[in-house]
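INTERNAL AUDIT FORM
Audit reference: QA-55
Scope: verify that the stored structure record matches its stored sequence.
Auditor: D.O.
Record contents follow.
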Amino acid sequence: MAKPLKAAMKRSAILRRQAKHYADNAFDRVFRAASLVQAGQTPFAVLEDDGLVSLRYYPPLTEDTITFDGEVIPVEQSAHRTPVVIVPPLAVNMLIYDLFPERSLVRYLRARGFEVYLIDWGRPTRAHTHFNLHTYVAEFLPHYLDKVRAHSGQQDLSLHGWSMGGMFTLFHAALSRDPHIRNTVILGAPIDSHASGLIGAMYQRFSDVAEWVRERTGFRIHNLKPHWFHTPGWANTIGFKLTNPVGSVMGYWELLARLGDREFVTSHATTSAFLDRMVAYPGGIIQDTVVRIWIDNQLSEGAIQIGDDFARLENVSANLLAIAGATDTMVTPGAAKRVMDHVSSTDKTFRVTPGGHMGILAGSKAPRASWIAIADWLAERSD
């Protein structure tokens, strides 16, 4: 009897330790999630802050090596001449660019020898609801690029834009015809919105309805005040998750299944720190996006109205690397590839990489699938 009793007591002790481990992880994930978040650890300096928009500069790394996707790589000591300016989309917080110490885009680009700047669009409130495409593309972006040039001492710049940030990059290059925009890297940027699978079909339906309403009533969305279209951050979080509802639910199901795995719990908390803290869209941006990008699909014809002017993609002559996600349902490869038909760049490349809309930028496969290729491509064109 002694041996079975001893074995039972041992199993009971193991179960108690496991139960405590699960309970501790659950408590930390629910009540102390901030302590688990690994994002935002790469140091940066704020060069300018107007109270909403700010410009970050990531100084040289102090280490000789970094761990990148499980591999130790050397930090390049000589810098490429052309700085990289990251142009984010609206609605996201900047943690996406520095998500994990071993999976940080800004950290990796610094290790590859690039001077790295990032424009943080801040957290718009209803006081900024009148901001539209013109505000960001023709006012903010030129101002902060001038600040980068003044700080770096370089005129030529490389711009990196994901999602709406990719559109901002193209629109600015098209409007300004700036010959010193040397390289452009765009990821998941919709050029033909009506070609984006099921979402594209929905946009086409909206377009048909909008045309019917315009012909019979003369009504235009831009006739309404922008504040009616202000979209708070929580709504953007829900909307983003609804683009992949099954994946969102399965993420929490997997958390329950792997609650005993501290590393997974930490990873889940870090990713959620990005997804659950999305930022508001100004109403003017929503008006311009709904009408000009979704309904009228202006970019599919190679030009889009920005204020009283038109950004014509044929005016884009910078070297171009365009990337689309193989499983991106928001911007399918077919919707993104149309950029190749319109720009005048002689050096232009289109790639399809694994991942969805977020995955191509910061997913677990992104470092190997796209970051290395981006850095290699830029390195060949930055000196």
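Auditor finding: record pair retrieved intact. The longest strand covers residues 181-187.
Action required: none
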